[in-house]
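Lecture 7 notes: from sequence to structure.
We start with the chain below.
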Amino acid sequence: MNLGTPIAKGNTAKIYLYKNRIYKVLNDYLSETESHIECEKQKYAYSCGLSVPKIIDLTKIDGKQAIIMEYIKGRSIGDILSENMEQAEYYMNISVDIQQKIHKVEAHSIENMTEKLSRQIVSANILDNKQKSTLIQRLDRMTFKSRLCHGDYHLFNLIMSDNNVAIIDWVDSSAGDICADVYRTYLLYSQFSHEFAEMYLQLYCEKSGLVKDEVLQWAPIVAAARLSEIVPSENSERLLKIVNQYCPL
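Predicted structure tokens for the same chain:
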């Protein structure tokens, strides 16, 4: 099946627009259950009344797992902002408001965040066994109300159309602590701009009533979990520094 040229490429998939539908074709190395898990997570978010593309079908294309979903016509807020940086706070406010809507959902029917993070820490080869054990013990001591967390929330996963903003890419979502989800977003932004990351964290805390220390307590755990991901643009030394800063042995 010829889907044409991808409109986007991620770490785990290529995205195509074909006959007014989005085709997400997953990379070969992923497990055979990956597409099903992602579909179920996105369907769950959709069922919660959030603005999420509707799943249409789960199939295989040329032997590869593929998810077919609704096409949301628009541009990512990240792309829009890159052409208009003086409006950073305006768009960041929009994104924080949407993230707080996600975080209001009491979630129990999807992957547990603690189990997900624990699995990622164990698989982070750059960490030694003592570090992994210390981090997992710290994770196990965390207590929180289980809420829906996106897991990869940033401006490029928000598609703005004429009168709506859709939230895409739910593969990393889980039921867990909103503070961990906020720190994950902060970590992603800080990779490129400390000032931008601080703006985000300040706005989220102001709007939610959280204090920064509640968010930053997740720093070593979330940074350690990210070490397990295959992200060419990420600096593993940066992540190790965060782990050691907040969780010294």
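Points to note: Strands lie at 8-9, 13-18, 21-26, 55-61, 64-70, 75-76, 147-149, 158-160, 165-167, 174-176. The chain is about 45% helix and 15% strand.
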